[in-house]
Amino acid sequence: MGEAICGGDMVASLPNWVPEPAKLYLRHIETGAPIRALARETGCHASTVLRRIRSYEALRDDLLVDQALRRLGAGLVKSGGTGSPAKESVMRRPTHPPERNLSDERLQGEALRLLRRLCERGALMAVAMSMEKAVVVRETEAGTQTRTAVTDRDVAEAMALKGWISCDAPGPVSRYYITGAGRAALGAMLAHLESSAMVDTDAAEARRDPAMAPSETPLAALSRRRDKEGGQFLAPELVRVGERLREDFELAQMGAGGAVPDWGHCLESAETGPVGIKGPRGRVEAALRDLGPGLGDIALRCCCHLEGLESAERRMGWSARSGKIVLRIALQRLKRFYDGLGDEAAMIG
Length: 349
Known about the structure:
5 strands
């Protein structure tokens, strides 16, 4: 259907992930293609084509949708589209040009990571006009916000264009939440991932229901527990450092080119010292080596694979309720590791 809608050079210039109604909208706006001509090409009634075009016109007030259409429209003009002068004032060049084209593979990988984060309780994506990145944050029990993921602006725009996220509070900093369509897309991605050879046994176990799209991570649940003195069992900074490890882990998985990195070799012996670490994978490997066997195992299972404490204790042959103590010790040591990295500890790899 994409060829019928966009035909010729435009097919190559619009990514496959662009929704078909958005392709219709861009064809009509950028080239001035008549509604009736588009209806004949797509085999739809003219009223259906008009309704689809108007549906995207109505979304132009959405910051990310508007900029996604600008970016795609600018790509069409650059690739040789005729571009109506009357329309070019509407389809202005994007404020934040991408460093590289957004491929289907990159969108799927990033969306899987981000949509899982947005399923967590109190999670939202924050986007500001002046920011080149979109940030996922989650509200903690204490009312503060913890950053859990960062992505490029064009990825966030594509997710909004596909209807996976929507904004309920436009403003200087717009807040986006996962939609029903986003949850459905996430379920399909996870089902495909679990059925593929890319997923190892522990990761597959961690992704099964009800943890396929968890509303709460093991760390978030543990942070609500109290110690004997009535204080938080996990301090907020320990929760944040666990989330930082998970962010590096997910970025490393994405950068592995489809192959699952072998993290087991990092747990065979403890090696301290964060010298010469490069990129997310390097940080994860160095962190696991620094933690060593036991501490590294529980951190990998609970922080990265989102395996519950009871399951981790059972699989590792530990006594009941011992896992939370070991995990807290692991997070304390992990905090020392990331503190030693300084600027290298940034969540963006």
